[in-house]
Amino acid sequence: MPLNLALPKGRMYDGVVRLLGDAGIAVRTSPRGYRPTVSLPDVDTKVLKPQSVVEMVDAGTRDLGFAGADWVAELDATNLVDVLDTGLDPVRLVAAAPVELLVDGALPERPLRVASEYALLAQGWMRPGDRFVRSWGATEVLPPEDADCIIDNTATGSTLRANGLQIVDELMVSSTRLVASRRAMDDPALRSRIEQLAMMLSAVVQARSRVMVEVNVRGDGLQELLEALPSMRVPTVAELAGS
Q: Which of 104, 136, 167, 174 could disulfide-pair with 70, CB 3.0 to 4.6 Å?
């Protein structure tokens, strides 16, 4: 039975491909573009928008895929399992408004027009009387004429500031996750393959936050070095031939 993998289209794609590559898994694009091949046996791969990755994995038509935690929450995907936080593309989902609208740094106490691509999360945050405005991208350009406040993701806040917006609240923190369908995780054979892939990627994620230090030291200075050398657990000591 093939393992059906979904890769995210857009800005997340390159980071995911590099992560797979560092784990020894090559991704090769196909003439059609949306069906790359990976150097893993019996894996069917398709490139989808992150929102579609969540929907297809949640529906069980894809066994696993990479998507942002923000879209998992927005689409209320309950039939998938969060397998691994890759830490890639960390963003905050925030509420932001024009500086001139704020009263002592806070939103005014009146009904507001709130624009966002995140309908579920935005409406869960909104106050009674607020009106939701659906955005289809470039949400930051809507205020002040077409919206009073927006809910959008941001990595550095620079785009918000460039458009005269100030962050007033944070809804959640998101990053790229490896998610799997519950149907696949209930299948012992598929679950084993998913967990093996997750273990390989987890090793890369952990390794990226560490460095290896190699030191040559005389035997009479070894103990002093061991007391000073930082290490995850204990250093590996190899004695050279002839001491």
A: 174
Structural domain range at position 68: 3-89+175-207
Average pLDDT value over all residues in the chain: 93
Number of folded domains in the chain?
A: 2
Helix-helix angle 188-207:11-22, to 10 degrees: 90
Locate tokens 């409406």: which residue?
A: 123
- Radius of gyration of the chain from its Cα atoms, rounded to whole angstroms: 23
User: Looking at residue 128, what is its pLDDT?
Assistant: 95
Q: Tell me how far apart the terminal alpha carbons of the chain are, to the nearest angstrom.
A: 54
Q: Is residue 68 part of a domain?
A: yes
Global pTM? 0.83
Per the CB < 8 A criterion, the answer to whether 67 and 50 are in contact is yes
| Residue 113 in tokens | 């027009």
Nearest to 167 by CA among 65, 97, 234: 97
CATH number at residue 150: 3.40.190.10
Same domain, 165 and 133: yes
Kindly report, residue by residue over 11-52, the tens digit of the pLDDT: 899 999 999 999 999 999 876 678 999 999 999 999 999 999
Kindly list the strands in the beta sheet with 64-68, ordered across the sheet, starting from the edge strand earlier in the chain. 43-48, 3-8, 64-68, 176-181, 80-85
